Structures are given as C-alpha cells and as structure tokens.
From TrEMBL:
Membrane topology of this protein: Multi-pass membrane protein
Predominant subcellular localization, coarse grouping: membrane
Protein name: DUF4870 domain-containing protein
Region of interest: Disordered: 1-33
Organism: Angustibacter aerolatus
TM stretches of this protein: 44-66
Keyword annotations of the record: Membrane, Transmembrane, Transmembrane helix
Compositional bias segments (type: Pro residues): 1-31
Keyword Cell cycle: no
Compartment(s) where it occurs, according to its Swiss-Prot or TrEMBL record: Membrane
Length: 103
C-alpha cells in the first residue's frame, strides 16, 4: 500500500478546503513565516509598482492568489489595495481640489 503525499489528507486528494467551497483544489495552509512574508509584500508592492505606473497590481495579485489560503494575507492584501486605491483616487483629484481652493 502506498502512503499518501504528506501534504494531502488521508484518502487521496480532496476538492475544496475543509469546510470551504466545493470544486476548489485543496491547498495546504500557509506557515506563519510565509503569511508574514506575503502580507509584507502586499504592503510594499505598490511602491515597487509605482515605478511602472501600476501600484495596485501587486496587492491585487497577492489578494487573488492567496485569499483562500490565509485569512491573514487576505486581510493585509485587501487593506493595502484599499489604502492605495484611495491614495490613487485622491492624487488624481488633487489638481481639481487645488484649483477650487485657489478661488
């Protein structure tokens, strides 16, 4: 009898996270070190993306890739995405506000 892969639950591969959405492939939970790394990258990525003009692409990609694997990473990626989308929209409307205050 063959032993299952150490990261797979006994009985073969499962579909959907335990207690989660059926149809999604099962993925092992992230380690705390990986969670901290990806949460930090979600907050740093907009600054790196700002050099090419796409500051929201980093947090959005991290949120889409890791939202089902870790609530910690999902929270921080969504927070970074919300903060930087607000900053982008405010910086786009700043010239309009500046001219209004000058009146």
């Amino acid at each position: 009898m063959t032993q299952p892969h150490p990261q797979q639950p006994p009985g073969g591969p499962q579909w959907g996270p335990p207690g989660g959405v059926p149809g999604a492939p099962w993925r092992p939970p992230m380690s705390p070190a990986d969670e901290r790394t990806w949460a930090t990258l979600a907050h740093v990525a907009p600054f790196a993306g700002g050099f090419v003009g796409l500051p929201l692409l980093g947090p959005l990609g991290i949120w889409l890739a890791y939202k089902d694997r870790s609530p910690w990473v999902r929270h921080h990626a969504a927070s970074a995405l919300n903060f930087h989308s607000c900053c982008c929209s405010c910086s786009r409307s700043a010239p309009c506000c500046r001219s209004w205050w000058a009146c």
